[in-house]
Amino acid sequence: MNLTVVEKLIIAALQIDDESGVAFTAEDLVVIAWKKFPDTFGLKGYLDDKGNPAYPDSNRVFAEIMGSKPIRQRGYLQKVGRKMYQLTEAGRAEAVRISKINTSSPLRKLSIPRDTIIELQKLLESKVLSKYLNEQTDLITFFDACAFWNISPRSTAIELTGKLANIEKIIKLAKDSIGSGEASTTHRGNIITSSDLDSLNNAHNYLKKRFESEINIIRERTDERK
To answer: Taking the complete model, does pTM exceed 0.85, yes or no?
Structure first.
């Protein structure tokens, strides 16, 4: 059974609930969710010696439990204090149900070429995406954007156009393959979700807007030798 992000979170919340029986903090959920599902809730771009996410991505969890996200719309989680949460009876029942029927059968493979998967993984593990997800966009430089796009400030217009189109094609191929769910890859066996691809696309579009003037300078080059 392929679990959604919401289902993974309530399973993590159930573990806390079973161990403590009391309300838990958002940070408690961040740590437990990361430990149980590191590929989904691990911080991109920071891997340990085994190639696994070395740190939790707190923003990933916060985005799902704060505001009007599905986990609260469905009545699975309730806020009981400042950054304090508790599973509802409906949430506990759903987490128990999912835990019972979840099996160890492998996720479907991401059905895109291996070379494309490797390129996609590099983008997902890039420093640019990590800074974007952690609200550190002020630290992103044009050189960071160039590394993300695999160009240089002296690239030609045709090189720029090709690289940008390539990234957008990679994201589209992956989105078409995954749909609204998630899939494992043949590159280190990582799991890529639809949400990961949305974040990647948003970061790509942010860079294009943020460095529009620099991009326009490159687009004006017509001499391939420049």
So the answer is: no
